[in-house]
Amino acid sequence: MSDPANSAPETADERAAALLAAAARASYGRSFSGYLSIAALMRPEVVRLSEVERRVIREMLLGLVEQIEQELRARILASPDLETVEEFTASLSAPHIAIAWPALSAAELPDDTELAKLLVQRARAYTIIRYLRRFGSVAEDSVIEQLTEHTEPAISASAMNLLIAESRSNDRFDDPRLGRADLPEPVARRLIWTIAAAIRDYGKRFDELDQARLETVVTLVAGAMVAEHDDTSALAVAAETLATALQDAGSVDPSLWVEAVHGARLHLYVAMVAVRAEIEFEAAWDMISMPDVATHMVLLKSIGVDRDTASQLVTMISRAVSQDEATADNHAAAWIETYDTLDATNVEEAMRAWRVDPAYRSALSYLSSANRGASS
């Protein structure tokens, strides 16, 4: 985290330069998680996560595996080509008999950097959203709910889709949940086939089963699930779709961003800012969710948000990220003084690093981390 107090710039120009430099540097220090395996997320010495985030990640992953496994098992059991072997079908029919998770845990979960990044993002979003729900001001009839009755069909439909995606993102205990619908197609494809392989491997213990026939059923069922997968209802995608519809209709107003933050609609806020700034959702997420408020401020400045609105947004998110109101307020206040002095050309230069492909930023971050390790 950069600290404006440490550099003690004496002029407004120096403070602005320090802020812009901090925002540009941060672009190559955030995406390293994209190179981590799922197993690494469970190891504190590899990935810095809070205990809450680590617990949430494990529970989300377990729930996701169980959900996909149960769907596969139900489809396999319903297949007319499945050979009837009582012990095997009884095992598939028993929800309390776990097949995939024990097998994957024993073999160590396969690397999937996209899934690892998604799990980290959703866990961190959970801690931020939980804070916003406690200290925000959610309206009874918010603008978001009103958008479901908008006269523009694209807005009303996408607003309803977002509400459904939001309701699906938490379980009955309000803990975060990651469902198959939230997975990008490549991630869903890999996970479905991995769990299908675990079920197929489990079938080997039943000598009475025709193994070739079982393999045919399993691959047909898994292939159908992969072909049917639709990620347009994923939470981030639903938020981006609504944000794009609002932008196209000229209906985006900074007051809507403030309401989204106070109403704990973090994904919608990130999406609206990303669409306005014409950057990837992932880049906007990184800039907004960093403990260092410099990146968030530069992003808002780049899209012309006024100082008072920017101050509200930055301060509220900073509190939620740090979970420390006093520290967040002091840090935000130290930077916000420079907001009006930021030059548009210099802001765009700082944004340039955030406009590149996320894979490129991840690679730069990875190489930077590797080089630091080699020189230590």
Description:
The structure is a single chain. The protein has helices spanning 4-7, 12-26, 51-78, 86-93, 100-107, 113-135, 143-147, 153-168, 185-203, 211-228, 235-248, 254-262, 266-277, 281-289, 293-302, 307-322, 325-336, 344-352, 358-375. It contains 19 helices and no strands. The chain has 376 residues and is mainly alpha-helical. Helix 12 (254-262) runs parallel beside helix 16 (307-322). The longest helix has 28 residues, at 51-78. The two termini are 21 Å apart. The chain is 67% helix and 0% strand. The model is unreliable at 5-9 (pLDDT under 50). The chain has two domains: 1-30 and 255-376, no CATH class; 40-119 and 177-228, no CATH class. It is elongated.
Quick structural summary:
67% of the residues lie in helices and 0% in strands.
Please outline the helices and strands.
Blueprint: H1 4-7, H2 12-26, H3 51-78, H4 86-93, H5 100-107, H6 113-135, H7 143-147, H8 153-168, H9 185-203, H10 211-228, H11 235-248, H12 254-262, H13 266-277, H14 281-289, H15 293-302, H16 307-322, H17 325-336, H18 344-352, H19 358-375
Helix pairs in contact: 2-15, 2-18, 3-6, 3-9, 5-9, 6-16, 8-11, 9-10, 11-13, 12-13, 12-16, 13-14, 14-15, 15-16, 15-18, 16-17
